[in-house]
């Protein structure tokens, strides 16, 4: 599933191509793609027509478009769930439909369409009201419980350090908890832990503040680097709005590197089962704690 850098790459593309434009019409080509919009496809299509895209925003791995009627502030959001294979593509109106085209937005200026393509149909779109999120900010209702991410200007790392050390869980589980800190998924959690030289099974209550700060700073650092390289693409399903893949996978030190030498010490990277997924670490740089909490 795309993590913060990948979603931010998509958000920037949508911001460049869609913000300020008026939606002329919408077409839903697969009902499952709008299953989260409870009133149904016809309601979604009817409510999108004539709306202006005022902003493309993100919190963690959650992406949405603010909709409204200028000069009034936005009053609704089109939430985009990328799921495992969702893509937002900018295409000329004359371009042939993609094989897995699910939702299509056409604009009043007759410029490029915004298309939602999703092979596995785990993602989708839904209209939601915007609700207050503190400090004058608004977010879609379904995102209200999601914490700020390390790239958010209002992210308070010291508050997250305090909250993390109060948990009684494994460190990697805490990093993946989107109500604690958002945007960190399996890939960047492993990379941050490797950079901080901490094992993911380390009990959070045993962390010193310096340890917790180090791994959170490492997560921010690695995600900024990934963002600079267009994100991490392990298959053709993650692309930006122009259909291009990211290449940060070439820079990964731990995630997916089982059996390969650790870039720091040369010890083969270890793979462990973790929450029906995999976790990767260096046995020497990141020794397993005696009292582990996976």
Structure description:
The protein is of the alpha+beta class and 294 residues long. It has 2 domains: 4-143, N-terminal domain of MutM-like DNA repair proteins (Alpha-Beta Barrel), CATH 3.20.190.10; 157-281, Helicase, Ruva Protein, domain 3 (Orthogonal Bundle), CATH 1.10.8.50. Helices cover 24% and strands 23% of the residues. The protein has 6 helices and 11 strands. The relative contact order is 0.14. The model has no long low-confidence stretch (mean pLDDT 92).
What is the fold's blueprint, element by element?
Blueprint: H1 4-18, E1 23-28, H2 41-48, E2 52-59, E3 62-68, E4 76-81, E5 86-91, E6 101-107, E7 113-118, E8 124-132, E9 138-140, H3 157-166, H4 171-176, H5 186-196, H6 209-228, E10 270-274, E11 277-281
Antiparallel strand pairs: 1-6, 2-3, 3-4, 4-8, 5-7, 6-7, 8-9, 10-11
Helix pairs in contact: 1-6, 3-6, 5-6
Can I get a quick summary?
The protein is of the alpha+beta class and 294 residues long. 24% of the residues lie in helices and 23% in strands.
Salient structural properties:
about 290 residues; alpha+beta; Helicase, Ruva Protein, domain 3; 5-stranded antiparallel sheet; 6 helices
Number of domains: 2
In order across it, which strands form the biggest sheet?
2-3-4-8-9
CATH topology of the largest domain: N-terminal domain of MutM-like DNA repair proteins
The poorly predicted ranges are none
Radius of gyration: 20 Å
SSE sequence, one letter per element = HEHEEEEEEEEHHHHEE
Q: Care to count the β-strands?
A: 11
CATH architecture of the largest domain: Alpha-Beta Barrel
Helical segment count: 6
Shape: elongated
In this structure, how is the largest beta sheet organized?
Answer: 5 strands, antiparallel
* Helix coverage percent: 10-25%
Average pLDDT, all residues: 92
CATH class (first level) name of the largest domain: Alpha Beta
- In the CATH hierarchy, what is the superfamily of the largest domain? MutM-like, N-terminal
**Structural class category:** alpha+beta
Strand proportion, as a percent range, falls in 15-25%
